[in-house]
Amino acid sequence: HTMVPPLSQEHKSQLSLLVKQDAAVLNDFCGLAAQFVKHGVHPKVFASAAHKLGVLPSQVEDAIRALVFLLSHSTQATATKMEFQDLITTLGFTEAAVNVLTDAYTDNEGELKEYLKKMGVQIPHYHNLEWRFDILVGSRALSHIAEPLITLQLSLDTHTCPGSQTNEDDGGGKQSEPVYDKLLLQTDPNNLVHMTSVLEEALHEARTHHSRRIHRYIK
């Protein structure tokens, strides 16, 4: 069962301007929020809406940003239609306003998911790990016992990150082979044991109930 994390007091305060409006005005704000998600909103639009409502342009901008956060926040948490309605009802919206907001939430699902990808942190993805065991042998100049070294080659996929370029067609109808970034690391056995310990700790944490709940919210 998905739970939508509660909104902060700041977001609730910014949304309070919308709570006071009728369904028609709220529908206009939902249109501006959808526009904001797709390609941004010109400051003149904030000024025009503010003039009609008798408020400051900054209040209109804050309200639209808070509305975008509400919609994307719920999309990120994979909230059902009913869960979304429960959330916005607790914020004080009327039944008519709840219907308008719910339509905006369901109608713009695809755009909201793209917006979340665009806003996300772009990091390389793990592809492969190779290792080699190195030790210096047969040297007369070596006056102490040689310590072995482990060389690691980490292959990173940067082409499946949000916002990155995908593999292009090579002209013959086939996609070119993906090129991976190679990262070389060298360490001694003691450090490798420490790295293994840290990774095992991270793996254990990832399996906890708390981590699984967080994963459900952000997937």
Describe the structure.
By secondary structure, the chain is mostly helical. It folds into two domains: 9-119, no CATH class; 125-218, no CATH class. Helix content is 55%, strand content 12%. The protein has helices at 9-19, 23-39, 43-53, 57-76, 81-90, 95-107, 109-119, 189-206, 209-218; strands spanning 125-134, 149-157, 181-187. It has a three-stranded antiparallel β-sheet. Helix 1 packs across helix 4, helix 2 packs across helix 4 (57-76) and helix 4 (57-76) crosses helix 7 (109-119). The longest helix has 20 residues, at 57-76. The chain is elongated and about 90 Å long. Mean pLDDT is 81; it is low at 161-171.
Percent of residues in beta strands: 5-15%
User: How many runs of DSSP E, i.e. beta strands?
Assistant: 3
What does the main sheet amount to? 3 strands, antiparallel
Order of helices and strands: HHHHHHHEEEHH
How far is it from the N-terminal to the C-terminal residue, by CA?
14 Å
The portion of residues assigned to helices is 55-70%
Strand order of the largest sheet: 1-2-3
Shape: elongated
What's the overall average pLDDT, rounded?
A: 81
Tally of discrete structural domains = 2
Oligomeric grouping of the chains:
single chain
Radius of gyration: 26 Å
Which regions contain 5 or more consecutive residues with pLDDT less than 50? 161-171
Organism: Cherax quadricarinatus
Protein name: COMM domain-containing protein
Domain COMM: 125-210
InterPro entries: COMM, Commd2
